[in-house]
Automatic annotation (TrEMBL):
Keywords: Membrane, Transmembrane, Transmembrane helix. It comes from the Bacteria. Residues 83-225 form the DUF4396 domain. The keyword NADP does not apply. It comes from Mangrovibacter phragmitis. The chain crosses the membrane at residues 6-26, 38-58, 121-142, 162-181, 201-220. This is DUF4396 domain-containing protein.
Length: 228
């Protein structure tokens, strides 16, 4: 077992590595333009919760996808053979919306001191979920429009249908992990200004991503989502 000081040091390294990974991916994207604009945001955000490892994920799944080899048509999407690789990419797309929302929501929840059923942790969970859901749907809505959906309402409905389950699974995995880190304490408010909080968030976000991959695979197989 690491001492408290050891944990803080480890989490500090993780945070520094995650920021460096995100910046490295963002820099490399200049040489590897993505077939969908939103993916140019998705990949750097992925680096934020996959320190160092995220670079290799980007190289394996994103760096070599060219804009000129992707067919945006629904016909092409329906006839594409779905693989676990597709599910992993789709999960990064969902995760980017969740993570962006969670990062924004954490300080907001701390500042407003929101509670739910008398619990500061549940209050933070609610605010984070709402923010993650809204950003996650936006990250799905934008590609819908980019793929040619002219109706804003139709694109929004499709985005909600496509990403709701994936978002819920991602967030559930993340918050169960955070609850575990807190040893079941739901009364005290998370210390969003601490290195420990953000280090644990990185781990929890990665757990959320991992368990959302199977959910994305099923959504892709059933045609509810389309491969990114």
């Amino acid at each position: 077992m690491l001492s408290e000081g050891g944990c803080v040091f480890l989490y500090s390294l993780m945070i520094i590595a995650s920021v460096c990974t995100a910046l490295g991916i963002a820099w490399d994207i200049r040489h590897h333009p993505q077939h969908m604009k939103v993916m140019s945001v998705t990949w750097p955000v992925t680096g934020l919760y996959m320190p160092v490892f995220g670079w290799f994920v980007w190289q394996a799944l994103g760096a070599h996808k060219r804009t000129d080899t992707h067919d945006h048509s629904a016909h092409s999407a329906h006839h594409h053979t779905i693989s676990w690789r597709d599910a992993c990419v789709s999960a990064t797309h969902c995760g980017a919306g969740c993570v962006t929302g969670d990062i924004i929501a954490a300080p907001v929840a701390a500042f407003t001191k929101v509670t739910l059923a008398g619990s500061a942790f549940f209050g933070h969970t609610l605010v984070s979920f709402v923010a993650a859901f809204l950003l996650g749907i936006l990250f799905q809505y934008l590609p819908m429009r980019e793929m040619g959906e002219k109706s804003r309402v139709a694109a929004l409905i499709k985005a909600v249908k496509a990403d709701t389950i994936s978002l819920v699974v991602f967030q559930a995995g993340m918050f169960i992990c955070l609850w575990f880190f807190r040893r079941g304490d739901v009364n005290s408010a998370p210390d969003t200004g601490s290195v420990t909080f953000w280090g644990q968030m990185i781990v929890a976000m990665f757990v959320g991503y991992v368990i959302s991959v199977p959910a994305n695979y099923l959504l892709l197989k059933r045609g509810i989502k389309h491969a990114m």
